[in-house]
Amino acid sequence: MKQFLSLLLLTLTTTAYSQQTVSVRVSNPSTTARSDEPVVIPLNGYGDIRSALVTVDGQEIPCQLDDLNQDETFDELCFLTDLKGKETKDYEVKLFDEGEPRPYPARVFAEMLIRNDKVKEKNKHNNFVESITVRGDCANSYNIQHHHGVDFESELNGIRIYFDKRQTLDLYGKFKKRLELEATQFYTQPDQKAEGYGDDVLWVGNTFGLGAFRGWDGKEPTMIDPVRSRTQRVISYGPLRTIVELFDRGWLAPSPLTSHPSPLNMTIRYTQYAGHRDTDVDVFFNKNVSDRKFSTGIINVKGSEEFSDQKGLRACWGTDWPSGDTINFKRETVGLGICVPLKYIKSEEPANKDNYAFVVGTDTDRLSYKVIYCSDNETFGYHSAKEWFEFLKAWKREVEKPIVVTY
């Protein structure tokens, strides 16, 4: 009996050591209230974390664990915070080396689907995949996937990324704040339209759409081509953020230094947080790319009104016919925006018939920027160029003055 009690005490002590507690303080440096602000805690140094619990004032809140490099070890913990102006909150994060991530209601969504031409209804596909790679000489990668590439959304937005050399972001406009892409699969049916579901609201063609990343040959943007292979994959499905990646292997991106540039491997990561209409774009290369220039920007919607603060924020408001996928084929009005840190901008190009473009570059092996949009269909959003541009100026101030996280 004495030996049993000793073993029990040893077991309880070992179990106690499987838990680590991290105190996290989050502060809003501005006088403007913030909602759904992401707090991200890197987990390197905490061991093999398998589950987590986050509380504030003794109340549990949703959190998320993400394995960014897909090695079966969680790399980051994420939760969202609401803060009044100048407010500070203290959170308690408990990390466990056993168990499973706690389930919480989904506030984001992502999917990849292989086409099935035998399915009659456009939005009944269920050939779900998590990653797909094609060779660079694939004849028609654009039509391999349903809705032509990975898609993802928050309650406020919906984006698909074409699986071809354009890698363009195309947009879904909503009437209501909710998740819809699981139901519509980007191809809204007449009965869904009657129930107030949204739809495709932008024609993109060969333009940037909303902030596609491209090469630059010294005169104009170039496609992500040729490549040895191209990949799309979902890294995280939520519930608080979804992360998708594009991986281009062996891209012969133009270089002004040689007519025979060495190939690059490039990963473009898109992170969509719940409660956000903006999307984070992070671009990683397998080597220093200070010898290259690249480009990004937004489509020049026909007849659109342009805004630029000449310091990395560029936007437009315009109306055009979207693609032929829509139900009513009506003209759609959208507001688009992109915010690029000044350190990456080489030049802001004059508008042409296709794009409002930036030439960008980095002295390292990575760069980042943000994209954002709204649809005039929204019952909750913006309905004029003036409203949209004023919102974007306030949004940029928040981007440049992020919440302060200490732990």
Low-confidence stretches: 1-17
Rg calculated over all Cα atoms: 23 Å
What strand line-up does the widest sheet have?
A: 9-16-17-18-19-26-23-22-21
Q: For the report, how would you describe the main beta sheet?
A: 9 strands, antiparallel
Structure summary, number of beta strands: 27
Structural class: mainly beta
Mean pLDDT equals: 93
Considering DSSP H and I runs of 4 or more, what fraction of the residues is helical? under 10%
Give me the number of helical elements. 4
What global shape is seen? globular
Beta-strand content estimate:
35-45%
Distance between the termini: 44 Å
Please characterize this protein's 3D structure.
There is one protein chain. The chain has 407 residues and is mainly beta. Helix content is 10%, strand content 40%. The chain is built from four helices and 27 strands. The chain has a nine-stranded antiparallel sheet with strand order 9-16-17-18-19-26-23-22-21, with helices on one face. Strands 4-3-7-1-27 form a five-stranded antiparallel sheet, with no helix packed on it. Strands 8-10-11-12-13 form a five-stranded antiparallel sheet. The longest helix has 16 residues, at 385-400. The chain is globular and about 55 Å long. The model is unreliable at 1-17 (pLDDT under 50).
